[in-house]
Amino acid sequence: MNVSINRNQLKYIAIIAMLIDHIAWAFVPTATILGQGMHFVGRLTGPIMAYMLYEGYIHTRNVKKYATRLGIFALVSWVPFSLFEYGDWPEPQFGVIFTLFLALLVLWMWDKSSLKKPLKVVLVVGACFVSIFGDWPVFDIIWPLFLFIYHDDEKQKWKTFTLLILLEIGLMVLMQAVSNYSFSSYFQLGALMVPPILSKLYNGEPGSRHPIHKWFFYIFYPAHLLVLALLKMML
After folding, report:
1. Three-state SS for 5?
2. Which residues, at least 6 apart from 146, have a Cβ–Cβ distance to it below 8 Å?
3. Is 56 helix (H, G, I), strand (E, B) or coil?
4. Strand, coil or helix: what is 202?
5. Which long-range contacts (CB under 8 A, 24 or more apart) does 19-22 make?
6. 146-163 burial by CB neighbour count: b if 16+ within 10 A, else e?
7. What is the rounded distance in angstroms from the CA atom of residue 221 to the CA atom of residue 159?
8. pTM of the predicted protein model
9. Angle at 225 between CA 219 and CA 228, to 5 degrees
10. H-helix segments, 28-153
11. What's the pLDDT at 200?
12. How crowded is residue 43: how many other Cβ atoms within 10 Å of its Cβ?
C-alpha cells in the first residue's frame, strides 16, 4: 500500500513533533529513554518547518502578506516563548516563528534582489547571526535557502539538505560536548528522518484549503508555549 502525505498533514506532523519535544523539555529528564525518544521525534520539527517555509515561499500569492503574518506572530510569541524557556519576560529570545520570518526575508532577497551575489551572501550571514535570538537558529535560515537554490535539481536538493542536516547534528553534538551538558545527544539523529519523509512520502499536494489549516500553527504555537509555561510554574 502506497502512503503519501499532503502539505497540511506535513504541517501537523511538525506541530505534533514540536509539542512532544516541548513537553519533554518541560517535564521529562533528557537523559532518560523516554526523554531521548521524545526529543528524537522532536527533531523532525525544525527541518520540516524549514521545508514548509521554502514551499510557502514558492506557492504564496503575496510574499509581503506572508512576511507580515510571520513578523506579527513572532512578536505575539515573544512572551510565551520567554516564559516557557526562562520563566520570565522580557528576554532577548524569540521563538521559531522569528527564525522563519528571517528565513522568508532571506529567500525573498536571494530570489528577487538585484544585489551582487557576494553582498547577498553577507546578508545571509547577517540573518544567520540575528537568528541566534530565535529558536532553531542558523539552520532554519540555511535549509530553506539551499532547498530554493536547488529546487530545479531534485537529486542535488535532497543531497544538500541531508548533508546540512548532518552538519547541524554534528555541530549540536560538538557544542553539547564542549559545554559539558549532562545529557546524551543521541536524539539529534531524529532529524535524519526528515529527508526520507519529504522525498518519499510528501506528494506535493496542498490538501484542504480551509482557513483553519493556514492559521492553526500561528495560533497553536504561542498558545501551547503559554500553557506549558504556566504548568511549569504550577508544578
Report:
1. strand
2. 157, 160, 161, 164
3. helix
4. strand
5. 19/224, 21/45, 22/84, 22/224, 22/225, 22/228
6. bbbebeeeeeebbebbbe
7. 30
8. 0.94
9. 130
10. 33-42, 45-59, 63-76, 78-86, 96-112, 117-130, 139-149
11. 92
12. 23
Measuring CA to CA, which residue among 17, 22, 11, 28 is closest to residue 81?
22
**Cβ atoms of 17 and 48 closer than 8 Å:** yes
The position carrying cell 506549558 is 228
Residue the block writes with cell 513578523: 71
Q: Which residues contact 70 (CB under 8 A, 6 or more apart)?
A: 97, 100, 101, 104
Residues 27, 181, 188, 105: what is their CA dihedral angle, to the nearest 10 degrees?
90
Please tell me the number of Cα atoms within 13 Å of 175 on its side-chain side.
7
Provide the grid cell at 29.
Answer: 529528564
Q: What is the pLDDT along the chain (235 residues), one digit of tens a residue?
A: 578 999 999 999 999 999 999 999 999 999 899 999 999 999 999 999 999 999 999 999 999 999 999 999 999 999 999 999 999 998 889 999 999 999 999 999 999 999 999 999 999 999 999 999 999 999 999 999 999 999 999 999 999 999 999 999 999 888 877 776 655 778 999 999 999 999 999 999 999 999 999 999 999 999 999 999 999 999 8
What confidence score (pLDDT) does residue 182 get? Answer: 53
